[in-house]
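Table 4 source record.
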Amino acid sequence: MPIRLKRVYEAPAVDDGVRILVDRLWPRGLSKEKARIDLWLKAIAPSDALRKRFHAKPEQWDAFIEAYFAALDSGAADDAVKELRRHLRQGAVTLLYAARDEEHNNAVALKAWLTRRKRS
């Protein structure tokens, strides 16, 4: 399951595979043509409430992870997860995010959740 992570503002690369935006909001100042996004999975992104809570207190990364994993485990995003897994079975996937923080964002959390779920 080759999953790459990339900030959506970075230039697309040949080895990106399927480029999937995993944010709930469209990235500011970026045209659809320049972004070259193959799929936008809004439903797999954290809820607006969770996103706003994390942006207000980024030092609570662990609490964000716990709440986001619980939301994903609840089945609220099952259709989006199934679609993402279908693309992963077909080849490389790059999860795109707009956040400036490359270590603490929902794409990092989603990749960790997918990896954990694969092992269990």
